[in-house]
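We give its fold:
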Amino acid sequence: MPNSHPSTDVPDVSTVWLRVFLEVARHGSFTVAARRLGWTQSAVSRQVSSLEGALGGGPLFDRLPRGVRLTEAGRLLVPHAEAVVEALQGAGRELAALREVAGGRLRFGAYASADAALVPQALATFRAGHPGVHVSREEGFTPVLLERLTAGHLDLAVVSSTGGALPSAYALHHLLDESLYVAVPADHPLADGGPVRLGQLADADWISGSARPEGTLLDAAVRQGFRPRIAHVVGEWTAKQGYVAAGLGVTLVPALAAESVRPDVALLPVLDKGAPARAVYAATIRGRSLTPAAEAFLGALREAAARLLA
């Protein structure tokens, strides 16, 4: 019958014993090993005896008049002891690199307009200071990014919220509040008129990233008393601008994406007094420890947000 507790077959061995064993094997002497380790010879002898006992009691060294010599059991043990010690040393080096943000990984996601300025600036700062960290990035809408964060596929997500609160399972690190612009063709009658109320465009065709305005930038229009007529659903910012420039409708643009607007599109600031701001956050899982790399990237995001606000 197979052993139902295979873990009991693994000898309970101290890594200190293995290190002492290897030192004695390397120098062929308890005395030299003790001197190299800064121990007494009797302490070294006790460690080796403990290892021998844990491995079944057979000798690992033949005790000679001058020094010691590995037994067959000792020669068999050497490569295994070296592998254990080297693995632990490697783990120690990797953990030290992780603490110093000199290695490890960073997995983050961001919504599209944050990728226009906020994220690239933060990432450039982060990479300059921590070139050894492996970075992977995803782009998506806020709900999808939060799902990826919950599933453990991301360490951090740059997300946004307009008015509504995000679920309490997330720790939200506020980065900035961004204003909104309405994008119209450069030859639109309102193009040179300065700030507008969205109600002035109640009869316009709208280009949106979703067929429903709720939960999107077009919440701002709903708050001003009209339901925008969505003529085209387009997810990507560059494509939205192309539709606007062609006269197929107007769209809302967050401040973070404003710098990348093409010259044949005019941006008009939106007047929406008293409305909740579109808040931008770095979201993490509440109660889940951040990796040192994620902590450092969060700091870089805060720096980039401060520069954009300035």
